[in-house]
Amino acid sequence: MLGLAALAAAGVTLLGSLVAPSSAAAAPALPSFASIETLFSFGDSYSTVGYKPQDGLLPLPGVGGTTSGGYNWVQFLAFMQNASYFDFAQSAATVNNSIIHINRGETPPSFDIQLATFEEYFAGAEPEIPWTSDKSLFTVFFGINDIGFTVLQDSHNASEIVPKIVQSYEASVSQLYDRGARKFLLILMPPTYRTPYIKSFGAETVAKFNTTIDLYVSTLTTAVADLSTRYPDASFVTYDTAPMFNAILDDAAAYGFSISSTSCWAYWNKHDPELDLPSCEAPLAEYAWADDYHPTWGVHKLVAEDIAKTLTGSVPSIVAAPPDGRTISRRAAQPARKAIRRRRPGHGSARGSGASAHDEAAHALMRERMRRSWAGLAMAGED
Ligand SMILES: *[C@@H]1O[C@H](CO)[C@@H](O)[C@H](O)[C@H]1NC(C)=O
Ligand SMILES: *[C@@H]1O[C@H](CO)[C@@H](O)[C@H](O)[C@H]1NC(C)=O
Ligand SMILES: *[C@@H]1O[C@H](CO)[C@@H](O)[C@H](O)[C@H]1NC(C)=O
Ligand SMILES: *[C@@H]1O[C@H](CO)[C@@H](O)[C@H](O)[C@H]1NC(C)=O
């Protein structure tokens, strides 16, 4: 069973004791977070598990729908909390498609549309899967594509568009409140300008990302304060992913990664946490980036542990997950930390010597595909 094997692998490779950054001091602990039984998640490719309730109400088992090569932070958090998770996040999603125009064939469902799906399946008169306000956590993680499109598409003016994005975000959170949501975990943006993809655009774009993210985060933080005032019977906790991402990228080895500035094209869009391909310099688990824009499952796990620490003050053990997404009441013993394997000369390092021109070409193709998808351009032979 891939799911259980993957979890075992997750426990083996990275230990919770390594988790250092946490915004715990800044955020109040969420009241009775320990009693959370259900997670409802909204977001983009950093959060998606490929779940679509229209295809079946129960979440798909395993890691097939994530962008991390393994589980993602939503799943790890659910496993740690022994909670069911219903994750409406979809790749490339923004807060509001009417604000950020994405010029490509299929427009991904933005926050308001994900919310409508939640309402349709979980907020009717008699939802098939019951949930209660006090035992449900609503997580919202947007901004990566909003800021990405704002910066990379010329037509967007950040100082005009960011307040609109945040206003729409606030409206959707208010609507969740109207539907009974009372416990909110609002995730702030990671430094996406440190991804191999954004770095490939050069220093000017990196700097623009940096300042635009700052603007988005500060505007959103003000909005969250406003929501807290408006809804005193609800809990709003923000978790800033930047400290953890920065800590990992500043000192990857301390967190169990041997490669943190590049990705290996051969691991792109793969769903096997233990994948170890000879054309890459190291196993997937030793990379911080699963592709040029998305972190690996190991990074997700560290973020999830840090979130749990922020919310509850401690990092619960991961328990196993059967196919229905609910976790088994079994606390896994933490196995000894796996030794980091060194880069293997016979493998990916040959790449730079010109021995694998094919690999370079494939990586260039992946990067060009991403670049064109951001710019709203189709590639020949692609829909
Ligand atoms: C962006 O919008 C702001 C506020 O409306 C305006 O002052 C600024 O000139 C605009 N920038 C550009 C490059 O159009
Ligand atoms: C999305 O943006 C459009 C255009 O600005 C706006 O009319 C609409 O109310 C927004 N949706 C939400 C949920 O705020
Ligand atoms: C991003 O901005 C922060 C200040 O907000 C600065 O400390 C940091 O060096 C910047 N990073 C890059 C890569 O520009
Ligand atoms: C996990 O959740 C299931 C279903 O709600 C419950 O039966 C079980 O006792 C829980 N396990 C733990 C360790 O809380």
TrEMBL record:
The keyword Signal applies. Residues 331-360 are annotated as: Disordered. Keywords: Hydrolase, Signal. The keyword Hydrolase applies. One of its GO terms (molecular function) is hydrolase activity, acting on ester bonds. PANTHER family: GDSL LIPASE/ACYLHYDROLASE FAMILY PROTEIN (AFU_ORTHOLOGUE AFUA_4G14700) (PTHR45648), GDSL LIPASE_ACYLHYDROLASE FAMILY PROTEIN (AFU_ORTHOLOGUE AFUA_4G14700) (PTHR45648:SF22). This is Carbohydrate esterase family 16 protein. It comes from Rhodotorula graminis (strain WP1).
